[in-house]
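Feature request, filed as a ticket because there's no other form

It would be nice if the structure record came with a short human-readable summary line next to the tokens. Right now we just get the raw output. Example of a typical job, pasted below so the devs can see what we mean:
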Amino acid sequence: MSENSVFKTDKRIKLGVWGLGRGAYLVHQAKFLNIDVVAGCDIHPDMRECFAKNTPGAFVTADEDEFLAQDFDAVLIATYFKDHAKHTIKALNAGKHVMCEVTAFHTPADGVKVVEAVEKSGKVYNLLENYPFTKENMYIRDLWQKGFFGEFMYGEASYLHECRVLSYAYNTGLDGLPIEPGYHAHNWRSTLNTHYYNTHSLGPIMNITGLRPVAVSATPCDVYLPGYLGKKGTVTPSIIKMNNGALMRNLMGCTTNDYHMELRMWGTKASVEKINDLKIRVGACGGGEMLKIAPEISELQKLADQAGHGGGDFWELYYFAREILTGEPAPWNIYSAADVTLTGIMAVHSSLKDGEMVEVPDFRNKAVRDQYRNDDVYYGNAFDPENIFPEGHDPSLTGQFSELMTKLYPKSNGSGLPTYNMAYDGMKIFDNIADAEGKLRIISRVSRLIECLPTLADAIKTARKIADAYPESLPGKMLYDVLDSVDCEKICNVEQTTAELRTWLENRHKI
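Raw output as currently delivered:
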């Protein structure tokens, strides 16, 4: 590997980035991959300002036509979820190679259009699914492709991401506050059925085994976490049949225990799991030796480890650049992208039929595509995120809503209701916490709660004010659920509660 590039060529790829939140984050290591970021496009002025600051000399605009008219070879699409298909087709028609954030499209009809646009264009298309490319998953794939595990029998993978705050404030400005109007929910995260966002869990198993999903069954869950608008904050598990007859359990959604990269797989010769450590059970039997594995680290992996998502952000850019520069196919072409995307769509269809097994169509086949050419139904819009308050609402009050949610459920979990709950739950079971480190963490949470209690009390009062003003609105109903889930009187009685917490801290035994 040369000092400035991993490829043995002087050829460069000029890249435009469409969607400057996630999109700008992805290209930090582009320089090592013969990629020059030369243009950016975003509807939000704060995003454009940040991009211009971090990418000196690059062209930046809010106008997508002006953006696509610029001289560059490829575009990274990281715009809103429901715009991926439209923007992919527009970029292909402008003569650009495309790498697109997950998922590839949101209806079967759009999927047909995207597949045929890629076929017609002759350009490279890659899906930006990064979870298969952690060093552990790449190690497992290498062994699997060599036959070490035998035939795939069953697998379990999860992408559980409790992201209440992202439903209100994914886009933040230079001051860290939400840049969308305070009385809007996030464009698509607030409404998304998480079956649609299935690629981080199904993707690794597809990539490791080389198999494709052929059918899916998803029974709906009717229990929800408070803090989400509408019926969104829940789990969305599905059972998927692969084309060799094997099964996998795919689990997405929002719970009280996140698993971003949990994976377990059973073959006919060996099994593997990656929850915290990577472990392989050998012996082709249930009681075989379970061995902890430390994958070897290559020079490229050392570079990848500096990127996000376990190195996956580097590898997805690497494979895209490699295909453009050398012609060697990348793992996520348009057909595998369609496979994984359609599985999520069909899981939603199954859940609406109480778990009936639904076929996952193969869009490699034009005759199959013809059956879905007019299927443009999307089940994610349970409400309009731009109209969550009734007509004629008072912006001086409702405009506080998004910022309020960041105070109730902050991104860092270092304040707000998460810290309140962690402190009081930890205090209840403190004497039974097995290790000193765990006890110290709860002591730290209690101390932190004392610091942030006044701010939390103000947020609770604002939540009550908004809910009382608009009790039948989606935010009103949601805020009432949130208020019912905690002891509001204790939170708002700051002086007395602070004294109680200080007394508890003083009475703790030395650890």
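Something like this underneath would help us a lot:
The two ends are 50 Å apart (CA to CA).
Residues 436-469 form the longest helix (34 residues).
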